[in-house]
Amino acid sequence: MLDWLLEPLAFDFMQRGLLAATLVGVICAVVGCYIVLRGMAFLGDALAHTILPGMALGYLVSGGQRGALFWWALAAAVVSSLGIGALSRDGRLKQDTAIGIVFAGMFALGVALISTARSYAVDLSHFLFGNILGITNQDIGLTFSVGVLVLLLVWAFYKEFLVLAFDVQLATTLRLPARLLEILLSLLTAVAIVASLQTVGVALVAAMLVTPAATAMLLTKSLPRMMLLAALIAAGSGFLGLYISFYFNVASGAAIVLTCTLIFVLVWLLRRPGVRNAAA
Amino acid sequence: MLKRIFNPSPAHAHGQRSVAVDLRKLSVRFDGHLALEDISLQVEPGLRVAVVGPNGAGKSTLFNVLAGLLLPSAGQVRIYGHAPAQHHCLAYVPQSSQVDWTFPVSVRDVVMMGRSGHLGLLRWPGAEDRRLVDESLARVGLAGLARRQIGQLSGGQRQRMFIARALAQGANLLLLDEPLAGLDIPSQEQIVNILDELRALSISVLFATHDLGLAAERFDRILLLNRRLVAYGSPEQVFSGEHLTAAYGGHMQAIETKDGRLLLGDSGGHAHA
Prior knowledge:
The structure holds two protein chains of two kinds. By secondary structure, chain A is mostly helical. Chain A contains 15 helices and no strands.
């Protein structure tokens, strides 16, 4: 058993991968709690897909330099989330319609850009499905800084985000700047998604945002505990998933997400509504 | 805008003598039609006002404008002398159906939200905030349920929790949008009794309801709406056959009993015995 645990650690790429999976798991799980509570899972998935044209452009401009791609991806996500906000702002479109339009349009743009130059299609597939074993020390440093920033902001705006998520009307009557907080929350989502690109990829990042938070919500009825549990579940899934990937030769991003999903299914089956809801 | 988080304004900066609600020629366009038209009204502080009128009369629209959630298309709105959403003095008790009851917060957490507007960024609730929350919970009779997750409360307890939040917020004007809908008679009675007690704190209450009998019996003033202001005054002044026909048309039955009391029934709501 100990050998089974220690053997992968002899490889540098596994050490870096495990560290990255843990960091990304924690970032996504904490931000994901707000996404689950506000019922915005679609926004998470959509934002992840809108990143593609940013990365394709970044690739064209900087020739595959990874540090630069992070910023291009982040720029695309920020532009998309602001665009969604602007489209749904005046009430002519519902928000999920605006999300659908921006998401499909941006993703198509990404596919179009990629298709013009076949030579880098393989590299970009890493961003669709992740390439956790190709992570560099520089990537880890960046992910760590991003993680600290995200957690600090979630902590600093805890009260405000809580009111915003629970009761938007109250946010207005208490004179909290609801729109500013909303933009900040979607920026945090964008940052969490971009940070996860290398571990699970665009196509699967929505699972990292939604599944651990949803699992934690079934287990507790207190927000701080929900965040902590979600972070533990996500970090644990990252660890376990990577070991599964190592020993059974499964794609790493898929293994991590499948582990998350399995934990969710187990919790969902074991915690039936009647047990915890003694509603009057 | 950030200034609003860093420097929240004090709770009771407004003058005690200003009227609670001051509407001047208010018109509101909502969903392409005029939901409220040319409403002028002054509500003195400390009064409990029942807001009545048929479905679609603009009761919720009026509340949304007062809370600053909807902008008027014409006219002026002042709450204790302030524009809407410029002050903490107003609290809106949401309709129960708009609340996510699975949300992972306790009763105490929700009441504490009332304090968050006073605290400002990076400030955490202190002893004074906790004292106010405890006091508010006790006043509505929920002290024993403070640690419950909100989904475990009964319908009446849910409404009382939001009234406690308004008290913790230090609100001087309480908006309740059909708070009795779906509640049994004892729970309804409990909530109206709490509102009676708020009179001692000189908190003004606007209370939208379909229950005209309750409105006549337990409220100081009646605001009868049907897109326009039909009548505002004491129950005796407002509940005349002429006003009711103007507001409800043929959908209203008003029967005067021997002792001079009006028995009223509104097709849109619940009968009150």
